[in-house]
Write the structure tokens for this entry.
Amino acid sequence: MIHYLTTTGGESTVRGYLKSRGQALAPILEAVRYEDLFTRTSLPRGCYVFADLERLSEPALAYADKLFGLLEGREGVTLYNRPSRCALKDRFQPLMQEAGINEFTCHPATRFPATIRYPVFLRQQKRHDGPATPLLHDARELSNALGDMWLRSVDLAQIAVVEFVETRQADGFRRFFSGFLVGGRIVIRYTLTSREWVQKKWETITPQMVSDEADYIRRKPHEAWMRRVFAQAGIDYGRLDFGMSADGRLQAWEINTNPGFIRSADSYPKELLSNSQYVGDEFETALRSLDVSSSGPPIGIPWTPPAHSGGGWVTTRRRIPGRHRLRGLLRMPGLRAWSRAVVGQRLYERASETQSR
């Protein structure tokens, strides 16, 4: 049995798959919420995938790691993603740069160098929503963006400043790659081709692009590099999103430990149905390989489960109390623009001062 662990709401990745393309796996795959897992006094044997780690609070990560340690090495148990070993979003990019994998930097919005290379963009540290701003081309645009977030009560400790990497190739297109690591197997999710710097869907589909993707998902030419990134991040299960800079260097954007599963065939453009079927079959085979014989008695938890409200286990989008009172005073466009500039400049200076210490 495969016990796929997620936060409340995160289980939709599994349940949606089991209702569509993955119906045949329903007898061996179940979604288990961390909030429910943490109340148990014993655990059945089987495979445990510690997914959705980015959304867990620090206390939840610590308790999940404690359970991982209890299960580790037990007969009839296999484990993926030890929480204490995984370099999650706020640790991932610094680690990739230190390892020489990425050529760009990523810093907390509360602490970044004045020498940061523009353009940059802002994004949430612990989410997979993509950029939170357009490209920001200089210090003034960055400080204004910080000021705007502050005025909207966004907690800047959860925001990252990311240097932009140009990925446009000679043909004018940017290519976005994505692939899973499941049970030690690399499964290419897809390739996207777009003229835009943010790629979330197929913008252009030509017969040559379909053929190129078919070749890529089968040959997996970047498999060795992908395995290096997963190993460096200490992540055994997840999806790596990456691209290639204009000078030909692969760049790791992020690893999602609770990625969307392969969708039903009718959710893909008709030109890509054959490719999606191939990927879906590979993904199902990889998932099946996680299943282990779970015979044997449950494993008792030799301590009292922690007393904690369910909501405290999940990292939420924090709002700074009190700032909402400013909104009524800032409805005038001119006043808001002035406040954004003044506040943003101070935030920018403070972040640069903190970095220099």
